[in-house]
Amino acid sequence: MSEPKSPTPTPAGDTYKGWVFKWTNYIKGYQRRWFVLSNGLLSYYRTQAEMGHTCRGTINLATAVISVDDACNFVISNGGAQTYHLKASSEVERQRWITALELAKAKAARMQAESDDSGDDFPPSSLPGGGGQGGGSQNSEVQSTLRTLGSKVEDLSTCNDLISKHGSALQRSLSELDSLRLTGEAGDKIRQVTERATLFRITSNAMINACRDFLALAQSHSKRWQKALQAEREQRVRLEEALEQLAKQHNHLERAFRGAAQAHAIVDNKGGAGPGKGEASDEDDENEFFDAMEDAPEFITVPADPQFHKRSSSNASGLNTDLCADDQSLNEEPLAMNQESPSQELVPLKKRRARIPDKPNYSLNLWSIMKNCIGKDLSKIPMPVNFNEPISMLQRLSEDLEYHELLDKAAKCHSSLEQMCYVAAFCVSAYSTTVYRTGKPFNPLLGETYELDRRRESGYRSLCEQVSHHPPAAAHHAISDRGWTLRQEITVASKFRGKYLSIMPLGTIHAIFEKSNNHYTWKKVTTTVHNIIVGKLWIDQSGEIDIVNHTTGDRCHLKFAPYSYFSRDVARKVTGVVMDKDGKAHYVLSGTWDEKMEFSRVMQSSRGGENGTEGKQKTVYQTLKARELWKRNPLPDGAESMYYFTALALTLNEPEDGVAPTDSRRRPDQRLMEDGRWDEANGEKQRLEEKQRSARREREREAASQRASSQSEEAVDEDSFVDHSMKSAPHDSYKALWFESCEDQFTGEQVHIYKGGYWETKELGNWEGCPDIF
């Protein structure tokens, strides 16, 4: 060929690059291509200039088979889906690639095994060497170094195997050379021995370099390991001392409180009304509190004296009166102070289904679709139903009401601070249904609705409508006979980042209680789906939520801790503090978003000393015994074969009579997917999306025609009235049917609020105004 001689492939860290001839077809034969080996993936390009924008193909070496055909040819295959027939310019160059590919394959296999383990539901504290936030930076560094050293050891092992293999081949060649007489074959055998010796030298050099890297890394980190070990020992000693002193402090406070109680009892017997000697201890400046450990949570809780639980409002003058009243209500069963109940028990009128058809086991090459989605909004990319679950986003939004009883309890609370605890628990409970749900809900069509009428069973009914398509936005309104209203408009933004998928819900959730007129607002946190390409899919929630009571000024700050391999904390942890308008803490919330939440009454708080390099102070809360606020319901039997649906989710797509023709239950592609007919569902999905695009184009034509008509009238008569809003009207003039757009008075956002009429229309059975979207 007229191509210039291929340059020697050059390694750059874990990356290996070079020209290799690749078999294309019987007409063109082998063609020169630029190959790049990086992070366990072998990619190729027509030229080096294509590396920035066009990849011609990629194969994952973790599951690939590497075989040698002859002196210069070798084959890479991943089991039939992809096979590369390659040819190097010489046997030496081929062996360089084989060595690099074997090393990359070993690393990729280890990375895949570690990635599979990362999604297991084990607490981080059970992992070896898992550092908590208190020892964070040092343990992270040690773990990183150990993984690097382990990788180098594996490299040495791989190189050792290759040396053994090439050494045996060299020995066989030498033996054959010794047995030959001086004939014409002697020259060929000598050249073969020379090439074998060259291969052996290349592999030996690779092993020597790996040994040198290992030794240099070990030497540079030995002193650092010693310091880290010493720091861990000193930290343990400090913790033991702090624990001992804390126990002494607890005993001191207990004795002081008992003395104060006795003194107060004596004063009461004498008819005195003044406070006892020890009752001002709640504000005693001499009380000693300890610093939080470095990188610890924002606050620390310690148990209060058990006698706090038995105090009544008559003998607790050392504390605020309203505090004791709330405390009394919280030490009983959560709703024992409210005995309001309907005159008759609500019983279901309809038996709901408890199963749906099992999920079919269809295989799909995820990477072949997702590689074209990197950096794009997934709401604008057509996806097969293989990635979906058989419910729509409107139904998924209605699942927020899975634990509606928390709002029922909140509506009965006399204290706004206690009510805030239940609202916070309801906010967290909405994420409990997502822990195993890796499927994507169907994107609703514009104008699609979903009703969830549980008025007879649970006292509420809910309506959702897709009010916008780009960006996709859904409005939700739920009202309960038990004194609360929930409304929200959520726009979902999603980005595929290669290794994970980020889902960012945008919008504000409102909860309004009729009896107290309290109005709460909050936003959702970010959902992350990990291991999109390799490994087991798993979901995490992370971020912070501020729940605000706009009536009283009370606030609750919730923190969803992101999962960390090195954290000693329980996975999926959520912590929070409920404060009044003055910033005084009244309750501490703790738990996990997938299991349960607990609350503790704050009896006393104090700022700790400086902690960490930034000099931050930690708050120490002295609390009563924690009580359960919410607990997740167990999944139905066989949930793993039914998309991990909860008991409520199994009923969401159950056919019902009398619903609107735009209801998600009537969507044909979703129904076909639930029945296991995925190929037909994909065809229906494409038909519905094309029908939606046609409807949008028709609306744009009508809007353009109206604008042209207005401009024509204005040209005929300059004094004639012209609706100038038509000039700036968007091309798509769609308006929601059951919701109207307005400005939210609390957030200032432009939102859609339920304008009424749906349930009245349902009673009449007159759906003439509904669009034909299915």
TrEMBL record:
It is found in: Membrane. InterPro entries: OSBP_sf, Oxysterol-bd, Oxysterol-bd_CS, PH-like_dom_sf, PH_domain. Pfam families: Oxysterol_BP, PH. Residues 222-256 form a coiled coil. One of its GO terms (molecular function) is sterol binding. One of its GO terms (biological process) is lipid transport. Residues 13-106 form the PH domain. Keywords: Coiled coil, Lipid transport, Lipid-binding, Membrane, Phosphoprotein, Transport. It is a peripheral membrane protein. Signal peptide: none annotated. GO terms for cellular component: cytosol; perinuclear endoplasmic reticulum; plasma membrane. Residues 138-147 have a biased composition (Polar residues). It comes from the Eukaryota. The keyword Membrane applies. Residues 128-137 have a biased composition (Gly residues). SUPFAM superfamilies: Oxysterol-binding protein-like (SSF144000), PH domain-like (SSF50729). Residues 109-147, 655-727 are annotated as: Disordered. Residues 663-704 have a biased composition (Basic and acidic residues). Belongs to the OSBP family. This is Oxysterol-binding protein. It comes from Poecilia reticulata (Guppy).
